[in-house]
């Protein structure tokens, strides 16, 4: 992973919620988000993850940007929710792999939030490192069978992971 020379530490806000959002880096990486500044988190086709986006995520919530299906997988940086959930445009696009013939503009099924780049960690925090850290033992991402692409994160876990990611 390329290191970001900026040493940003995001301030935790007591009213914010914290999330881990997974993306395959060969599809969309933290570097892509850095280049693009923002992106719609489209293509999510899991009802629980959709409900997190529509019912719980709020503008300003902080996100651990996680590279999944990678060698190694892990947390690459930070993002923030920059726009509330809107209907996912890919559900209406017949050429998209995320097209859903049951969805209509009047009754969309799938939604997505917009996320904005905050920083790339100088130190990529691998899944193995997370597993070995006793302070992170309750994180959903290391629980057996937990494959959810969007997961809530406790403030203490977010803060600890951010600290790990800032190490050079």
UniProtKB/TrEMBL annotation:
The record, for Pfam families, names: EVE (PF01878)
Q: Which domain of life is it from?
A: Bacteria
User: Where are the membrane-spanning stretches?
Assistant: none
The EVE domain covers which part of the protein? Answer: 17-163
Q: Which UniProt keywords apply?
A: Phosphoprotein
Name the UniProt record assigns to this protein = EVE domain-containing protein
Q: Which organism is it from?
A: Pseudobdellovibrio exovorus JSS
């Amino acid at each position: 992973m390329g290191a970001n020379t900026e040493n940003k530490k995001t301030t935790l806000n007591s009213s914010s919620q914290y999330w881990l959002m997974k993306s395959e880096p060969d599809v969309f990486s933290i570097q892509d988000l850095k280049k693009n500044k923002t992106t719609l988190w489209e293509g999510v086709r899991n009802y629980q993850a959709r409900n997190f986006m529509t019912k719980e995520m709020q503008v300003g919530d902080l996100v651990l940007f996680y590279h999944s299906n990678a060698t190694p997988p892990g947390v690459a940086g930070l993002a923030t929710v920059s726009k509330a959930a809107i209907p996912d445009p890919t559900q209406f696009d017949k050429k998209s792999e995320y097209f859903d013939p049951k969805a209509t503009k009047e009754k969309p099924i799938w939604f997505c939030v917009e996320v904005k780049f905050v920083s790339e960690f100088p130190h990529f925090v691998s899944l193995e490192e997370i597993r070995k850290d006793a302070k992170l033992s309750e994180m959903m991402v290391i629980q057996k069978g937990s494959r959810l692409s969007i997961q809530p994160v406790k403030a203490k876990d977010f803060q600890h992971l951010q600290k790990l990611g800032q190490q050079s």
